[in-house]
TrEMBL record:
Highest taxon of source: Bacteria
Organism classification: Bacteria, Bacillati, Bacillota, Bacilli, Bacillales
Protein name: SIMPL domain-containing protein
InterPro entries attached to this UniProt entry: 26kDa_periplasmic_antigen (IPR052022), SIMPL/DUF541 (IPR007497)
Pfam family, one: SIMPL
Species for this entry: Metabacillus herbersteinensis
PANTHER family, alphabetized: PERIPLASMIC IMMUNOGENIC PROTEIN, SLR1258 PROTEIN
Residues in the signal sequence: none
Length: 221
């Protein structure tokens, strides 16, 4: 029994009844930026010759890009590697074959109508390695905020339905909001060296998703 009716831990907070809900907001947005990743690969027993051949092809490629309106600032070197290549004899002996020089670059553009032209230009002028075209949004934060608003509204609506179903009064101010997942899923297209000219490139929409876990308290009527 407590003396004078006072609990031993008067400052211990009482747990509030809670409704846990999750809200999801998804917005489909048209991308406005694309990055094409391609490269030049050359091979030779003499590493210096392989490097020079690679440089010549890359210079030709960049000249072709500039001729169609791409600025040097839009072209970025991603990686430059020199790899010795080996082959194996019938008895399993490792024998040096040659050197492979790989120079990978990215080309960034906001003129998506130019993608087919860029694609054709690089593969007609030296590129012989194909990777991807990656699409993204320059105003991702703005679109993401809209998705968060949708997620928050959905979470409140779910909690309100639950509260009304059980005939309790929902406290509209949430106790806790946790952002579980937010962001966009970049769309990528695999490139192929063999393609007809002009190359058609179809651009789809990018889903921007926000997911919130929200806790609301309620009052018994």
């Amino acid at each position: 029994m407590y003396r004078n009716g006072v609990e031993p831990y008067p400052n211990t907070p009482r747990k509030l009844p809670i409704i846990d809900v999750q809200g999801v907001g998804v917005i489909q947005a048209k991308p406005d930026t694309a990055v094409i990743t391609v490269g030049v690969s050359t091979e030779n027993e003499d590493v210096t010759v392989a490097q020079q051949e690679n440089a010549n092809q890359m210079n030709r490629l960049q000249t072709a890009l500039i001729s169609i309106g791409i600025q040097e600032s839009q072209i970025e070197t991603i990686s430059y590697t020199v790899l010795p290549q080996y082959q194996y004899s019938s008895n399993g002996e490792k024998i040096f074959k040659n050197y492979e020089v790989i120079n990978m670059i990215s080309i960034k553009t906001k003129d998506l109508d130019m993608l087919g032209t860029i694609y054709d230009a690089v593969f007609k002028n030296g590129a012989n390695r194909a990777e991807t075209i990656s699409f993204s949004l320059s105003n991702e934060d703005e679109v993401l905020n809209r998705a968060l608003m949708i997620a928050a509204k959905q979470a409140f609506e779910k909690a309100d339905v639950i509260a009304r179903t059980y005939r309790v009064t929902l406290v509209s101010t949430p106790l806790k909001v946790t952002e579980v997942l937010s962001g966009f899923y970049p769309r990528k297209l695999e490139l192929s060296i063999a393609a007809s000219s002009p190359t058609p490139i179809v651009i789809g929409e990018i889903p921007i998703q926000a997911t919130l876990n929200v806790q609301f308290s309620f009052i018994q009527r």
